[in-house]
């Protein structure tokens, strides 16, 4: 039964939304957090295991130093206070994908304390998202739901457990309750998680692929009657792994909770699940409080001691942060604020940067990645990076245009061939025989025929009226199957009618 929803604008008028994200960033270390088992996405189920990652009796964990260093670097990028001493705790709960029946995490003594991240909205406003902590923990395995759509729990008739992911190091970034966002709540949440993705990639600590679960978020939402009122009861939608899903979860929960409260109902403190097929959340289990997890220090692990000297060394190794890089590239490329915003929202910064490095102009790279290729990606519901075209392909195509070997129409046909898997732009051009018809008796004859077929147009052109030039150019392009150079045709026609 569909839940009642309030119009979003009305919900924002009547209630003040408060939200928070728990973002899980999977670290790309060679081995897991507490054992030497490797991990690579997509391997055969239950093949990347050790006794430690399976939680077998008598197995003892050993801390992965590389994971700790990666977590500190992420904490520094998020302006967190790095604590000199941090402690491992056991978080006790039963899930079929948790082989030990407890998770090794950091409770009251996390590695990274309070911080913040500034994000920009589409209108150029900067909003500071407060971060409570960014602690380290090991991941659970993965429940593969069978019988439902896209492997989701909705509609599944049974589940299988793959423990390959169990023990993979995570950094969980927990925000403070985020207030004051109003109607921009979803936009700011989306900008925040995109920026975290970009930072993780810039640091080289995670592949940052949401579709593979490298980054996923628990979305917490509550409503209150006014900014001065106490916080309301929150829902927590678990493991949302797409930017749009996170934004739409927030909007849906605001609408759902507003309708519930307006009818005198009560919001349950519960976990929920986002269903992409219905674009809605569904109730799961009642949410437990922290003390229900019975946290206590893990007796098998010592505390982590991080010296200030080591923190300073890691800080000195940080690369240029994404926000600073975008500002630099925007200046180098000469893009407007709106153009750069569109590039960032499309996830095309790296693609355009690499295309320019391959020799294309910034304007040409922008035209392709945010034009033809963005339309292709949207039609196929994939990211630009998932398209079968590379920055080298785009730069090569731009060179063919600059060298006068292709016009815009032929270039689009060539790109279509690249997207179909026909090869590089040069290979597609050779296969189809694409070339510009730019001169010679053949083109001369085609222009003569176009002028003869349109004597009234020819007369206007002869008298200096260039408005109907498109009629002649169109006729020539049709006759040459789009292989003529429109600019060259225009110049040649003018010379012909005036001679």
From TrEMBL:
SUPFAM superfamilies: GatB/YqeY motif, Glutamine synthetase/guanido kinase. Residues 350-497 form the Asn/Gln amidotransferase domain. PROSITE patterns: GATB (PS01234). Keywords: ATP-binding, Ligase, Nucleotide-binding, Protein biosynthesis, Transferase. GO terms for biological process: glutaminyl-tRNAGln biosynthesis via transamidation; translation. GO terms for molecular function: asparaginyl-tRNA synthase (glutamine-hydrolyzing) activity; ATP binding; glutaminyl-tRNA synthase (glutamine-hydrolyzing) activity; transferase activity. It is an enzyme of class 6 (ligase). Pfam families: GatB_N, GatB_Yqey. It comes from the Bacteria. Coiled coil: none annotated. Heterotrimer of A, B and C subunits. Belongs to the GatB/GatE family. GatB subfamily. This is Aspartyl/glutamyl-tRNA(Asn/Gln) amidotransferase subunit B. It comes from Aeriscardovia aeriphila.
């Amino acid at each position: 039964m569909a839940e009642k929803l309030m119009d979003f604008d009305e919900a924002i008028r009547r209630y003040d939304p408060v939200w928070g994200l728990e973002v899980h960033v999977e670290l790309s270390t060679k081995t897991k957090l507490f054992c030497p088992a490797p991990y690579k996405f997509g391997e055969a189920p239950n093949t990347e295991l050790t006794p430690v990652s399976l939680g077998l009796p008598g197995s003892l964990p050993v801390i992965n130093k590389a994971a700790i260093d990666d977590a500190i670097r992420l904490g520094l990028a998020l302006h967190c206070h790095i604590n000199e001493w941090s402690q491992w705790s056991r978080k006790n709960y039963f899930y079929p994908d948790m082989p030990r029946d407890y998770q090794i995490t950091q409770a009251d003594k996390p590695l990274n304390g309070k911080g913040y991240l500034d994000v920009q909205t589409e209108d150029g406003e900067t909003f500071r998202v407060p971060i409570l902590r960014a602690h380290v923990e090991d991941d659970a395995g993965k429940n593969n739901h069978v019988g439902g759509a896209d492997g989701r729990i909705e509609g599944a008739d049974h589940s299988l457990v793959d423990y390959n992911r169990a023990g993979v190091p995570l950094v969980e970034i927990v925000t403070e309750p985020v207030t004051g966002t109003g109607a921009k709540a979803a936009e700011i949440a989306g900008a925040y998680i995109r920026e975290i993705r970009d930072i993780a990639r810039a640091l080289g600590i995670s592949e940052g692929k949401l579709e593979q679960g490298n980054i996923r978020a628990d979305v917490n939402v509550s409503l209150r009657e006014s900014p001065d009122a106490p916080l309301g009861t929150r829902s927590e939608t678990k493991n949302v792994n797409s930017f749009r899903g996170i934004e739409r979860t927030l909007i849906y929960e605001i609408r759902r909770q507003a309708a519930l409260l307006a009818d005198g109902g009560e919001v349950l403190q519960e976990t929920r699940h986002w269903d992409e097929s219905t674009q809605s959340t569904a109730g799961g289990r009642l949410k437990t409080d922290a003390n229900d997890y019975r946290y206590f220090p893990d007796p098998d692990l010592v505390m982590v001691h991080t010296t200030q000297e080591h923190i300073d060394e890691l800080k000195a190794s940080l690369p240029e942060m994404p926000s600073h890089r975008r500002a630099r590239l925007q200046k180098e490329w000469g893009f407007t604020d709106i153009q750069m915003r569109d590039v960032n929202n499309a996830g095309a910064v790296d693609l355009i940067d690499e295309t320019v490095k391959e020799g294309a102009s910034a304007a040409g790279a922008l035209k392709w990645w945010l034009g033809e290729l963005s339309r292709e990606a949207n039609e196929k519901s994939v990211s630009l990076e998932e398209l079968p075209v590379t920055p080298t392909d785009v730069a090569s195509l731009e060179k063919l245009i600059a060298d006068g070997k292709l016009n815009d129409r032929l270039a689009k046909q060539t790109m279509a061939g690249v997207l179909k898997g026909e090869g590089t732009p040069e290979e597609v051009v050779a296969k189809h025989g694409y070339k510009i018809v730019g001169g010679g008796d053949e083109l001369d004859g085609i222009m003569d025929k176009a002028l003869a077929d349109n004597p009234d147009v020819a007369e206007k052109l002869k008298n200096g009226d260039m408005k109907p030039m498109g009629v002649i150019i169109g006729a020539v392009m049709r006759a040459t199957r789009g292989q003529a150079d429109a600019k060259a045709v225009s110049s040649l026609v003018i010379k012909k009618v005036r001679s």
